[in-house]
């Protein structure tokens, strides 16, 4: 057994279950919750899509979270060694997560930097622009070769700072502040949105059940949304769980994190679409909704600069809590395998990801014509991470637990050696992980790369 596994008792750890739940929920809650889920629900059957999503979240999402939680707490080490402890043949899953973390972190930080810029601009003149001018302002900003890099650096520095402080003194301490702040700001914006004249039209568009729109493609889309929303497949949750104490109830914690993530996604729709419809805007998707449509909405709203500031700070927090978990994964590996101090490891990973992010930022401007496989650098990084790395990582995790880890070992891990009264649930979970989840994830993968 390697030294880092045998000396796992010396590793830092989360001091409370609440701290772990908030940190992992923060990892799961991201930009996808704030725009992708609400738009998919509104355009794919409303309440009917939400029902499909909830079913898949309970059956697939919680199961995959529990896979990564069990591997991480069992290993008590970085993701590579945690999977190696299951079986040496499965350590590739950890290495995939290590490599992918740099890809994800580089473009997360670029977009996170945009949110800082827009938070400042909310109170310094952005909302004086017309709706048509908003689009030009956004395009002009992201194509600027210098300014986005400054905000990219600020965002990366914030992420590195928190990781350098450690688990209990950094990740746990700051997510205990950031996540409650996120919910408070969401509720403020939600109340403002649903009380606007004409808000009910947006709520109806968002949640009105239309079961005729539910097709096989809708189920696959909902599967993918659950999968990407929870951040499973990158081994970030494996790394977080490696700092978890043995006494914690993994199944309950996985359910709490999944419910928190889902709640944020659903509330985001109530926060965004009533306001969008109240002012006659089109419910677009992606960066256009966050950085063009919504600022135009805030510009027409009483106290618009204040609500715009709150919104972009909210998006910043969602992006930051996700980037923290991404950075921690390679940092844990470097600390344990290369005997590097935590601050130095955090700075090293952050610096590499920052340099990679320069190429991502330039892909919106001076390197816009540079293509790889027909995609600009931002699109390529996003495609690799979302369509290839995450599905393969989750597939590898389910295979490691379902086929390489003996059933008794996996069940004992999530029942704390039989101490918890959920043995029946544990056996059902293991059946799903071994026989159902790999097929489901493989279907997502084939769909993501365009084979299905």
Q: What does this protein look like?
A:
With 452 residues, the protein is mainly α. It has helices at residues 3-6, 17-28, 31-43, 47-75, 79-86, 91-122, 131-142, 147-164, 167-194, 199-207, 216-229, 236-241, 250-278, 287-299, 304-338, 342-362, 377-404, 407-414, 423-448. Helix 6 (91-122) packs across helix 16 and helix 17 packs antiparallel against helix 19. It has 19 helices and no strands. Helices cover 76% and strands 0% of the residues. It is globular. The chain starts with a helix and ends with a helix.
> What is the chains' assembly state?
single chain
SSE-based structural type: mainly alpha
Q: How many E strands?
A: 0
Work out the helicity level: over 70%
Number of helical segments with 4 or more residues:
19
What are the defining features of this structure?
mainly alpha, disordered N terminus, 0% strand, 452 residues, globular
Tell me the layout of helices and strands:
Elements: H1 3-6, H2 17-28, H3 31-43, H4 47-75, H5 79-86, H6 91-122, H7 131-142, H8 147-164, H9 167-194, H10 199-207, H11 216-229, H12 236-241, H13 250-278, H14 287-299, H15 304-338, H16 342-362, H17 377-404, H18 407-414, H19 423-448
Helix pairs in contact: 2-9, 2-13, 2-15, 3-11, 3-13, 4-5, 4-11, 4-13, 4-17, 4-19, 5-6, 6-8, 6-15, 6-16, 6-17, 7-14, 8-9, 8-15, 8-16, 9-13, 9-15, 10-13, 11-19, 14-15, 15-16, 17-19, 18-19
């Amino acid at each position: 057994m390697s030294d880092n596994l045998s000396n796992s008792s010396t590793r830092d750890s989360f001091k409370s279950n609440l701290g772990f739940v908030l940190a992992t929920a923060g990892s799961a809650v991201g930009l996808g919750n704030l725009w992708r889920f609400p738009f998919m629900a509104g355009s794919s059957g409303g309440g009917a899509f939400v029902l499909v999503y909830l079913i898949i979240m309970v059956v697939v999402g919680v199961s995959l979270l529990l896979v990564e939680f069990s591997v991480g707490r069992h290993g008590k080490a970085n993701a590579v060694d945690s999977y190696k402890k299951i079986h040496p043949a499965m350590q590739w899953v950890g290495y995939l997560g290590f490599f992918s973390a740099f890809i994800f972190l580089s473009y997360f930080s670029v977009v996170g930097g945009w949110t800082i810029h827009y938070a400042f601009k909310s109170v310094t003149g952005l909302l004086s622009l017309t709706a048509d001018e908003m689009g030009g302002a956004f395009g002009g900003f992201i194509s600027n070769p210098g300014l986005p890099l400054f905000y990219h650096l600020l965002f990366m520095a914030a992420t590195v700072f928190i990781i350098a402080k450690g688990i209990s003194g950094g990740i746990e301490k700051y997510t205990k502040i950031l996540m409650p702040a996120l919910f408070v700001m969401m509720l403020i914006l939600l109340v403002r949105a649903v009380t606007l004249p004409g808000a009910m039209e947006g709520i109806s568009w968002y949640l009105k059940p239309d079961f005729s729109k539910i097709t096989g493609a809708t189920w696959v889309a909902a599967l993918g949304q659950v999968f990407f929303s929870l951040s499973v497949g990158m081994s970030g949750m494996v790394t977080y769980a490696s700092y978890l104490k043995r006494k914690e109830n993994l199944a309950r914690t996985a359910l709490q994190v999944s419910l928190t993530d889902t709640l944020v996604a659903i509330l985001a729709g109530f926060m965004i679409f009533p306001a969008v419809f109240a002012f006659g805007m089109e419910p677009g998707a992606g960066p256009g909704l966050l950085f063009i449509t919504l600022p135009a909405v805030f510009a027409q709203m009483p106290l618009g600069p204040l609500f715009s500031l709150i919104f972009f700070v909210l998006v910043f927090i969602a992006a930051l809590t996700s980037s923290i978990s991404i950075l921690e994964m390679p940092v844990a590996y470097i600390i344990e395998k290369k005997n590097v101090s935590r601050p130095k490891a955090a700075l090293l990973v952050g610096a590499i990801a920052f340099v990679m992010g320069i190429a991502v930022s330039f892909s919106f401007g001076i390197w816009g014509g540079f293509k790889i496989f027909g995609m600009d650098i931002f699109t390529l990084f996003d495609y690799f991470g979302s369509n290839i790395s995450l599905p393969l990582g989750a597939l590898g995790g389910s295979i490691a637990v379902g086929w390489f880890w003996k059933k008794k070992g996996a069940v004992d891990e999530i029942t704390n050696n039989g101490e918890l009264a959920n043995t029946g649930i544990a056996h059902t979970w293991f059946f799903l992980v071994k026989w159902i989840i790999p097929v489901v994830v493989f279907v997502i993968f084939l769909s993501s790369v365009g084979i299905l």
